[in-house]
Fold:
Amino acid sequence: MTISAQTFASVLVFALVVHVVLLTCAYLIYVERKMAAYIQDRIGPNRVGFDFGLPILGFLKGCLGLGQSLADGLKFLLKEDYAPDRADKRLFTLAPVAIIIPALIGFAIIPWGGTATIPSFSILGLVHVTGGEVVLAGLNANIGIVYLLSVASLGVYGVTIAGYASNNKYSFIGGMRATAQMVSYEIPLGLSLLAILLVYGTLMPEEIIAHQRQHGWMVFAQPIAAVLFFIAILAEANRAPFDVAEAEQELVGGYHTEYSSMRFALFFLAEYAHMITSSAMFALLFLGGWEPLPFVSVFGGGAVHLGGGVAEVLLAVAVVGLKLAVLFGKAVTLVAFMMLIRWTIPRLRYDQIMMGAWQSVIPLALTVVVVTAAMVQWGRTDTLSLILANGAVFALMMVVMPLMPKYDPNRKIPLYGSRFNPMPGERVVTGPTVALAREDHPVRGSL
Amino acid sequence: MPFSLKPAEQYEVDADPVKYLAGHVDTGDRWVLNFGPQHPATHTTLRLVLELDGERIARCTPHIGYLHSGFEKLGEHLDYNQYVTIVSRMNYLSPISNDIAWHGAVEALFGIDITPRCKVLRTIMAELGRIQDHLLNIGAAALDLGAFTGFLYGFNPREKIYDLCDYVSGQRFHPDWTRVGGLMKDLPDEETFKRMVKSFVHDDMPQAVKDIETLLVRNRIFIDRTRGVGTLSRDDAIAWSISGPLARASGVKRDLRKDAPYLCYADNWDGQGAEAVKFQVPVCDDGDVLARFLVRCEEVKQSAKIIDQLIDNIPGGPVDTFADGKMVKPRKEDVYGSIEGLIQHFEIIMSNRGWTPPVAEMYAAQETANGELGYYIVSDGSPRAWRASVRPPSFINYQVMAKLIEGHQLADIVAVLGSLNVVAAELDR
Structure:
């Protein structure tokens, strides 16, 4: 059997990255808990080591609480896998799968290690790998970034299905909120992406990094798009302050209220995997990918050669590893920033989030796209011109914003049947709600 | 029977379900959501039956009674000292205030004037109780909106108040510290007490309030979530007899510490012309959740000011009123050292003896953290109250819940509920 070098590299990289990411997710939970603890003047997890309660492993006790994630994972595996009565069992099982798969395959497009050339070789004489230049990513497709958009929009299905299948009103509200929110924030996500792709003129991640190596990071050239993209990925990942879908204080657990055991763990992992994917994507699109410094090229543009002597191969692997570490480091830093936001500011309300999307983020993103398109047409795509264009957009926003009609988001809306806030002219009757409360327990046949 | 009730027929109750349904417009897309009694945001066991139109609340029906514990009935079986352990468990956010308010009412019934030292100590502890409650509440304002950090900033210094309660009474959560005509015991060591109070009032508490304010007061999301939410007008606040920070946030200038002064809030509290403690009562006109938050923040600072004025001037002398009054349980050394002390001890402890209060009715209220906490005691001359009724601020304030929330959204429930600071144990008694 003969396979191409790219297939070989893709399988290898993807297998490696998925495992690294899953492990990172587990430890990101630990990091988040520690971080929250330090923000809140606490200590955080510091007890669980790797001794598993065995005296012989006593020297592994403690370990700064690093065993916590492992213990949590074990706990999830061993818990009762419970599904509520009258839940739609098939959809209920499908939902966590539908949410974890998009979260994991989103990684495929990210070029973790740049490009490399691989010589022809064979594995045990069975599989022949033809040599050539490869991109060290899970997927080297010419649609590039569009793949990210398509995969990201799949994530909403898991949430919707979970909310629908649980037969729980809180879950349903959570699912509805998440659906509306994620669909709305895909638009600014796509628009801010468009604003920078116009400048890049390509969808290929490698070429995007090459462009940034020449012209400086895109975050300097398109700061507004960067901010909008970051807001959009926060909303897409259902992170604070956009976590209305699982708002504990309102909806108990939101769409995953009824989930327990490993199914719940999949929701949990998906959230963190989603955060890493989107952060890595942000690092790739705005922060120069695996190049560590803004205006200086450290690794250069060429492909590393994974061949020759042992020393050369080791050196090449080290370079690839460094690139991976830089990109991963940037992603994790962004994730840490997301956590900082979560533990600092309160949650927005659902309608405020939607209003934010349709009344501020999307118009602004559209303006940026139009201005950028004009700049591209004009042939001025260098960093300085784009910064000036961004400044103009910002100034325009500052001028237009006070002219917008004022809108009180917290106004009361009169409703039929309300006792204290009735429709104008409605006769208000104060009485018991017994008749209505009966609706709460509909008499149905057993399913 | 010392009082009579109006017969039920004379109240106009529109409780006919058929009539109700006739007046109800079925829009066809309404949901009934059962919010509580088991819900993370309902602060113990409150239940709201909500009729939702999308995310809007068309109708909100609070169902109470899930934590009914018969506290008032217990007041008819326990004597005036024993019942303090029960009142302390009503509002467990500031238990010491309940103790002080209960014995304030009992002493008003008995006609006892407590000693200046006792007054000062009770005032200090009552203000600490207020701080204890408000610190939790301004923190919970953040928690209910999803910012967990502010909650813990408020919760940390509360531990210092528990330490103080532990120090003065031996019990950190429910001190049960007051007694008829005095206190359970004098301070173990006055200097240590002063040091602990000062370190709390000058270091821990201001830092916590500053942290929470820095986190929230200028935060756009917090403002957007709270301004204009759950607005209660001044007229409504008076009509629904709302008291405490809620009423003051709605512009009602009422604070029992100023309007019906007691303890050290009254002039000439030590009988030698001492001035009342100086403090300001924060009032806000907006009446929304934000206003309640700000009023509570300011009240904490004013409480600290009151404590500051008193802590260096704790008068000497006994904490209990004169022993001849047969009102106060004597000190242990008197019980074991003198025949009079022993007799008085037995007189109070024995179930067929005890106090001989006047046959009278007495309502006395104090301004606690949540509002006017009053006790209505009906005495038949026995050492137990014939009726020990409570005017719990939570119960009265909770009436407006439906009024505040109808027309708002589901997410606003937690903000409004938190700002009402309803304690279910006090609400259901």
